[in-house]
Amino acid sequence: SGYLILDLDLGVSVNVAVTPGSGLPVVFMHGWGASSAAFLPAFERFASEGRTCIAPDLPPFGASGMPPIDWSLSDYTSMMLSLLDRLGVERAAFVGHSFGGRIAVDIASRANRAERLVLVDAAGLRPRKGPIKRLRALRFRISRRLGLDTEKFYSADWRALPERMRGVFARVVAQDLSDRLSSIACPTLIVWGRHDRETPPYMAKRFLRGIKNSRLVMLDGGHFAYAERSMEFVAVLGDFLGRAWKQR
């Protein structure tokens, strides 16, 4: 196994961990602000079994470069497909957490590249707006109209970003992928933390209803339940991908 720095002719260099092997390749895509190391226990487990494993640092995180423009979700998807083309991978199992899950949904719904899909506390669905959120949105609009400081209304993820990436974050987060779910045809595993507050469990149920060939596994924990319960997550993932492995 090792790391490659790939120039994908998209104006950005991408750092990617790759273990060459056989069978169905497994592509791990981390959440916003994380890196390829986020899925390390699962990556190492499947690599040790002789599987091809691929885990990029999604730009600009980890050791990857800064996107040259305000990328949209489509740009991240294009980057992933270019990366797989460069590595000679036609079809794969895509495992995506949070923001990585958003990219995985986009790939599985519009490109014939996903043989298996694993959504781990995935983003991509518009959240419910309860009274508190509606009040917060109203206060934000009033503050902006009055020329007051509005930074406190933004998420911690947004505030932690360099200014250069805030436009990217805004573009990506604004996109609702609900209408894409019916286009996903591959077997799909949905893994969710029971106490996830960032992408609450009702979103897992919406993914389950929207994707025909899908099943849901709940883990104890929050938005990072897959890491908090890494042994359980690896076992569930191995069972799901194992069936794909044996069919090839």
List its traits.
alpha/beta; 40% helix; 8-stranded mixed beta sheet; 248 residues
Topology:
Elements: E1 2-7, E2 13-19, E3 22-29, H1 40-48, E4 51-56, H2 73-87, E5 92-97, H3 99-110, E6 114-120, H4 131-145, H5 156-160, H6 163-173, E7 188-193, H7 201-210, E8 214-219, H8 225-228, H9 230-247
Question: What would you say this structure looks like, in words?
Answer:
It is globular and about 60 Å long. The longest helix is centred in the C-terminal third of the chain and has 18 residues, at 230-247. It has helices at 40-48, 73-87, 99-110, 131-145, 156-160, 163-173, 201-210, 225-228, 230-247; strands at 2-7, 13-19, 22-29, 51-56, 92-97, 114-120, 188-193, 214-219. The two termini are 23 Å apart. The chain has an 8-stranded mixed beta sheet, sandwiched between helices. Helix content is 40%, strand content 21%. The protein is built from 9 helices and 8 strands. It is α/β, with parallel strands linked by helices and 248 residues long.
- Strands side by side in the biggest sheet: 1-2-4-3-5-6-7-8
* Biggest pleated-sheet summary: 8 strands, mixed
Strand content: 15-25%
- List the uncertain runs: none
Reading the helices and strands in chain order gives EEEHEHEHEHHHEHEHH
Given the structure, what is the number of helices? 9
Q: Estimate the global geometry from the Cα principal axes.
A: globular
Q: How many strands in all?
A: 8
Helix-residue proportion: 25-40%
Averaged pLDDT: 86
Structural class computed from helices and strand pairing: alpha/beta
Write down the Rg: 18 Å
Gap between N and C termini: 23 Å
